[in-house]
Amino acid sequence: MEEITVTPLLIQVESIGCTEEYKDFYMGPIHVKDIALAQILLYENSAASGRHLCVEAIRHFSDFTTRVAKLYPEYKVPR
């Protein structure tokens, strides 16, 4: 089964059955291993400077809740 990691706040919002609609709420999820690799690459490159955005894709919050509901059908995840 595929693993998904979320912040405690998002878990809490979903577990209490929040039904508020978020029309314009987007997320940029990324795996923690990808962040670690990006940090290593930046530290090894002395020319690196400034800010670096490290996200896999930008997705709408409803896509996230749909995926959580599919991975964990035992929880009542509002969509």
In short:
The protein has 79 residues and is mainly alpha-helical. The chain is built from 3 helices and 2 strands, in the order αβαβα. It has one domain.
Radius of gyration: 16 Å
* Overall SS class: mainly alpha
Q: Separation of termini?
A: 21 Å
Mean pLDDT: 76
- Order of strands, main sheet, comes to 1-2
Q: How many β-strands, per DSSP?
A: 2
- How many helices? The count is 3
Q: Beta-sheet strand percentage?
A: 5-15%
Which outline best applies? elongated
Helix content: 40-55%
Sketch the major β-sheet: 2 strands, antiparallel
- Please provide the ordered H/E string of secondary-structure elements: HEHEH
Assembly type: single chain
Integer count of domains = 1
**Low-pLDDT segments:** none
Please give a structural write-up.
The protein is elongated, with a radius of gyration of 16 Å. A two-stranded antiparallel sheet has the order 1-2. It has one domain (8-71). Helix content is 41%, strand content 5%. The chain is mostly helical. The chain has helices at 8-15, 32-44, 61-71, and strands at 26-27, 59-60. It contains 3 helices and 2 strands, in the order αβαβα.
